Model the fold of this input.
Amino acid sequence: MSAGAVVMMIVTIAIVWGGLVAGVLYLRRHPDEVEDESETGL
Done:
């Protein structure tokens, strides 16, 4: 692989894993609230 291809691969991997880490951190700080089924009337 050429140097350019390696750099692009590293940048792409960093973007994907960075997004995953950012999503996990966001959900840890702002967890989804679970609705009670009895309140929804279903």
